[in-house]
């Protein structure tokens, strides 16, 4: 039986080389439905798209806060009111870290350092070495 399977596989050009992404992109678009349930769609199609369904599950599990980051932590102070205190400590930590990363990544000093490092890497790749004594 296994020999027949291998023979058939060779006749058909080997294994199916179509990736899950290709299959997903080739799918026809769903018709518009007023109350479309995306979670149910992924549940139904999880056998056809196992990797994407797991990714969709993980992304859908991320809690969404209705409190805007700028509103929650305005420059006016870090006073927690009833609305802000409804956030879990983990979400507050994520918001604060994200705000810090955004501020840090936009500093001109860091941008300058990154540009210098890119230039150094370009020189190294092109065979231009700077020897410091």
TrEMBL record:
Q: Where is the HAT C-terminal dimerisation domain?
A: 20-102
InterPro entries cross-referenced by the UniProt entry? HATC_C_dom (IPR008906), RNaseH-like_sf (IPR012337)
Q: Which Pfam families match?
A: Dimer_Tnp_hAT
Q: Which GO terms describe its molecular function?
A: protein dimerization activity
* Region entry Disordered, spans: 1-20
SUPFAM superfamilies linked: Ribonuclease H-like
Q: What is this protein called?
A: HAT C-terminal dimerisation domain-containing protein
Record organism: Gossypium stocksii
Source species taxonomy:
Eukaryota, Viridiplantae, Streptophyta, Embryophyta, Tracheophyta
């Amino acid at each position: 039986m296994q020999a027949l399977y291998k023979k058939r596989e060779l006749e058909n050009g080997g294994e199916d080389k179509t990736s899950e992404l290709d299959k997903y992109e080739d799918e026809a678009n769903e018709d518009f439905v007023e109350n479309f349930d995306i979670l149910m769609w992924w549940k139904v199609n999880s056998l056809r798209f196992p990797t994407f369904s797991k990714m969709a599950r993980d992304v859908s599990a991320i809690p969404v806060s209705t409190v805007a980051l700028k509103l929650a932590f305005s420059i006016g102070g870090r006073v927690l009111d009833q609305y802000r205190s409804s956030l879990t400590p983990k979400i507050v930590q994520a918001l604060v870290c994200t705000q810090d990363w955004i501020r840090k990544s936009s500093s001109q000093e860091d941008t300058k350092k990154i540009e210098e490092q890119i230039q150094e890497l370009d020189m190294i790749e092109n065979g231009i070495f700077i020897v410091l004594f």
